[in-house]
Amino acid sequence: MKKSSRVYVLILGLWAVTISLAVPAVVEQVELAMHRHWYLGALTAASGLFIAYFWLNGVKDIVYTLYYHLIYRRRTADVPRRGAAADPPRVVLVYCTCNDFSAESLRVSMRQRYPNYETVILDDSRDPRYLAEIDRFAAEHGIRVVRRADRSGFKAGNLNNFLRTADFDYFVILDSDEIIPPDYIDRSLDYFAHYGNAGIVQANHVATRNRNRFMRVFSIGVDSHWIAYQSVKNQHGFLSLLGHGAMVSRECYRAAGGFPHVVAEDLCFSIAARNAGYYTVFAPDIECEEEYPVNYLAFKKRHSKWTQGNMEFIKKYTWTIQRSAMTWFEKLDIYLFTYSLPLTALFSLYVAIHVVILPALHYSVIYPLWMLAPTVAFLLAPMLNDAIFHFRRMRKTALLSYLAHTILLYGSMYFISLRSSISSAFGKSTFIVTPKEDHRTSLREALRINRGEMVFGVGLAATALALTDSVLPVLLLAVPSVFCFYLALMHNATPASGGPLPPLTHTPAPVDRVAIEEPVGVGAE
Q1: 332 in a domain, yes or no?
Q2: Domain total in the chain
Q3: H or E stretch at 427
Q4: What DSSP line would sit under 380-410, residue for residue?
Q5: Cβ neighbours for 458, distance < 8 A, ≥ 6 positions apart
Q6: What pLDDT does residue 351 have?
Q7: Is the separation of the CB atoms in 476 and 470 below 8 Å?
Q8: What is the pTM of this model?
């Protein structure tokens, strides 16, 4: 497999153009501030650097989205079917669970049209209800259950505890809510046969089984994000194993040294595999099913886990990336996508500079009005893919409602990102299991469990109003934080006004197939 740098050449080129237009205005503001005092100049320069980084991420999102929809979406070539093997490889479906067992998900996933595979449950549960349910399921289906004496190493430790002594040629990682199609094993082996240096085949995913309004409203973001971003990453960035719905070869697992005992074990394992000469390959036509977080609290916990995992990754793996044999654009891809959540803590410095520190010093930085246009465009850039992908699939009013809810949802994550970034930067990161069970939430409970976000939002708005005479600079942070209790109540409403729940498996809507082919031409490495 070969990768091309053309996407990141385009990203950096467009970013350089936009930054070059803004540099004179920023330099002028820094010089004006330096004439007042050196620390005002330093604060203004820091503000300019934050803008440059923010614009780079915005350009990245726009280029990724347009590159997929203008180029990849129209490709139709497929990875060919491999020939029949006299001795089919031995495959193990590894089902990981920790107090979140889903019997139906596993039962459906086990219906593979492949002759040589087995299923093993790796159970880290402590709840007696789940222990009993898993034992009954295993006895009914004649499958193994592997438990360990402790839970060291989080999910990575659970996987290594079994895989280091298991007999297999390939293994498949299944999370508790995972459903893989009947031809998953057979089709994944086609990708391994087609790409001689593939060590991991990552399948595509869609969100199904939306049991309430929260899941139904936000789950469509999964359908659009996976296919677009992973397709581009596959050829022009760093594609990682994404935790589930992935097949790994025995040679790759051993060469990478197993899963590192960190929260972001999937990303770190993928880097170790890449350094050992193995690539992660995206399989867009293998469509698996996952569940969206069941409610706002579950979403917050998952977001906190991702932030802590990425911060731990920054602390432990930054130097590893620098020394790795990866291409420069793969490294840049990791930095831009992985560092964004933990760097919320640094972004808070930008907010503090303009909302607290400079106003308190009776000084303000005034950039040209035209700089507001790219800033707003880059602020909305993460939603561009959703807007394009669902434009013809949804009513326009429904799409606008979804985008507005998305702004509210991710804007409300600022507080939890900030808290998780700081706690993991100066402490130990924690692997948080995303809750799968749902229950009705009262208004009092919604207010109680989100009091941190609400106090933060009110305090931020009050500070901005007192020091700048306006809440506009913090509007997109304060409003979602204050109204997050509304998000916490959304799951109380069931889909279709209390209608029947969606089926366990779904019939995929017609979608454009994406080619997986080796790039040729300018920029191939």
Answers
A1: no
A2: 1
A3: none
A4: HGGGHHHHHHHTTTS-HHHHHHHHHHHHHHH
A5: 478, 482
A6: 86
A7: no
A8: 0.88
